[in-house]
Fold:
Amino acid sequence: MSSHMQRITLVGYRASGKTTIARALAQRLRWPWVDVDEMIVRVAGAPIPDLFAQYGEGGFRDWESRCLGLAFAENPPQIIATGGGIVERSQNRSMLSKPEAGMVCYLEAPVQVLQQRLRQHCGDRPSLSGNQHPADELPPILARRDPWYRAVADCMVDATQPQEAVVEEIIRSFYD
Structure:
């Protein structure tokens, strides 16, 4: 059995597969899972693009910090999928470094793969730069966030692998 609390928290850039992998992990481990972005929408009562428009990125990050704290307050076992920008705030990085975060896994993928995924399926992800397509603004944002993802991560997984391989690798890391 792992020395980690019975919780796995996934971090990584947009389109790295955090929600998909969280759902698959939850199914495999028979644990509940929570998506911090979905929790924000529920708690704030508005879709994320509306929150960005109404409060700006700073106001959105306030909601994000609050909901990350709420997720960690729930009883384990649990899988948590965070939003790509969760590491932007030092207070969140510090929460992610505490034992309550359990094992933090960085789903890592190269810029080109993330850009391709965002071009194929952007969903309602708001632009973080204000005017660029989320795929085009990615390189400088990932360059800034990557060291933070690495700093909070207990394990790093190649998110370009098939879903099953990513899930297996995370489970292996958890029980090592």
Observations:
- The chain has one domain: 7-175.
- The first strand starts at residue 7 and ends at 11.
- The radius of gyration is 15 Å.
